């Protein structure tokens, strides 16, 4: 088997004799850990400091990734654990995979955000789990799944449980809120381990929980050993992480990307934060040193697990990773996930209307002014929130279209770009209707549902960016995507967590006394659309070249002629940049996958 496993990958095997065949099929393995029975349990490649294991009798427990658990505590947990299901109650700060072997039963789980996820496939008659889908796909010689590939350039952020599924046939993802149990007979079953909490805590209570979660989360990273750096973009999320990382006089190196967009006030806020961080070492990258959007879109890179969501930003991430590596970074903290956890993917105003009509109307009027909502949009949102998610998805799937990308098309949230073929539209409709029959709403209402799925979308971006940093020897970490942080945020009343009158009030309340009030006073957020449009214009020829001998075209999923006309004609409607991004990401990924075939064909 040949595959591209960027820096870290792990395969978990059942305590079964047939699992040895999977071990034999893998590349020469850097690390291996056995079951208490002596059979292979964990195989793969990881930094020795990133995997901790403790055993007692017929129980072994492993943690892969940053976690606030000492060897002594892990040993005590192993000593008292006689049932893999009993591990549901474990709670540590950090973001990690938990793997256990308990009396022959293997339990493996990732993080609620999906940043660390679990996939599984049947190999040699037994179910094998892994932390990366491409590992299992290469191990089982799985074929690409065209239907799932189509959804990678879907213009929607709603059916994420489908969009984030592995792109190979017969390789399956475990739901983020569940764990996978591998039994001694080689079979497997998924088990729910978490549900979104009730959003009934007043702001000050939720803020206390968030403060504890974030303090513990950042402390876990800065005390874990590697040299830690952090983004200091000027945004409230990254600024908070810098103050937490620099507490008690700890040295910190922070990266600031200077203004690239008209009206971008991020650098001024970053400078203000730096004034209150004595001893801070700063790395500043001028806008002119950041490669333009899409500048490397024709450049092959090592194959990855999934398409890069936002391939236009890939040159920026690579440039930033290189600068951080030159400064000695081994672990880098980003504020990714802050928007999604702290505010959620919906306002909560429609749930508030049902509980407290007068307060709900006051919020609704404010949001209508702030977000420029039309009354017909409000009526549609209110109607949809009375509909169960499976029925909502089925109705949208039946009406899926190849969108003209204009404003009116926005009302249909499930759509494909205009270059999608009729066959692609049919494949997407077919798969989404199947998903609607077996899916469920995440959480007790639509606000919780949108929050969870928004967090998972953000995690997919961080997960895709991680190999770019790993290529420079850097572990990318996003504390806002930790389980404990997500849980704390979701306990807050939705209409207090996000309001039309204050910016991120939950974080502001949580960080009083840690982050200076002047920094907490920010109420703006930078917007970079003009930079993206400039990148599209500058690299239009490269995007046109990507249409030549299109791999998506070969698969019958797009009409390259239509895509070429839009890329070369600058027909920029509302959703055009996003549509080009998702399609170019998928096309680039397919081309990079061909490197594996070429490598395997060589003697």
Automatic annotation (TrEMBL):
GO terms for molecular function: asparagine synthase (glutamine-hydrolyzing) activity. InterPro entries: Asn_synthase (IPR001962), ASN_synthetase/amidase (IPR051786), Rossmann-like_a/b/a_fold (IPR014729). The keyword Amino-acid biosynthesis applies. Keywords: Amino-acid biosynthesis, Asparagine biosynthesis. It is an enzyme of class 6 (ligase). Residues 210-590 form the Asparagine synthetase domain. It comes from the Bacteria. Pfam families: Asn_synthase. Its EC number is 6.3.5.4. It catalyses: L-aspartate + L-glutamine + ATP + H2O = L-asparagine + L-glutamate + AMP + diphosphate + H(+). Pathway: Amino-acid biosynthesis; L-asparagine biosynthesis; L-asparagine from L-aspartate (L-Gln route): step 1/1. GO terms for biological process: asparagine biosynthetic process. PANTHER family: ASPARAGINE SYNTHETASE, ASPARAGINE SYNTHETASE (GLUTAMINE-HYDROLYZING). This is asparagine synthase (glutamine-hydrolyzing). It comes from Saccharopolyspora antimicrobica.
